[in-house]
Amino acid sequence: MRAVFIICLFSSFFIHAQDSVKIKVEAPKIVTKLHLGKTYHVDAISIKFVDVLTDSRCPEDVTCIWAGQVVALIEIYENDTLLEQKEMVFEPGKTKAKELRSLYSNEDKTILANSVLPYPKKSREKIKKEDYYLQLEMSN
C or N: which end of the chain has fewer Cβ atoms within 10 Å? Predict the structure, then answer.
């Protein structure tokens, strides 16, 4: 019993609790769907998903050499004034840098375009325009 006490006493000098002050917690990200033709408003900023210009992504039931891409037309407004119109290219399996996905950014918030969904499942079924949506990510 005395040996266990001595071991516990000496091991307490070498074991340290985790310092919670040093843990960096990342701010939560909000992900939302923006359907084709709709506008997302946050403060004075509005993001409008205008159109899907092309969608050449390889359907899940087909083996393709190239994964394809989808090109989306997006408009960014501030106080109802058009700031920018962007054609954004999304390629399955490729992660773009934050700068290339950025729709709007200031010192308070960043709005990123993550992807255009749904992904084509069957080669014989065309996605209806009204089913498309843009996945947005907001962070502070």
Answer: N
CA 74 to chain centre: 15
Q: What is d(CA 124, CA 108) in angstroms, rounded to the nearest whole number?
A: 45
Question: What 3 state SS string does 92-108 have?
Answer: CCCCCCHHHHEEEECCC
> Rounded to whole angstroms, what are the CA distances from 9 to 3, 17, 30, 134, 135?
10, 15, 48, 59, 55
Q: Looking at residue 123, which CATH number applies to its domain?
A: 2.60.98
| Residue 38 confidence (pLDDT) above 60 | yes
In a domain, 1, yes or no: no
Residue 107 lies in a domain: yes
Angstrom distance (rounded) from CA 94 to CA 110:
21
Q: Name the 3-class secondary structure at 5.
A: helix
The number of distinct structural domains making up the chain is 1
- DSSP assignment, residue 29? -
Query: For 56-93, how does the pLDDT look when each residue is reduced to its tens digit (9 = 90+)?
Result: 999 999 998 988 999 999 999 999 999 999 999 999 88
Whole-model pTM: value is: 0.76
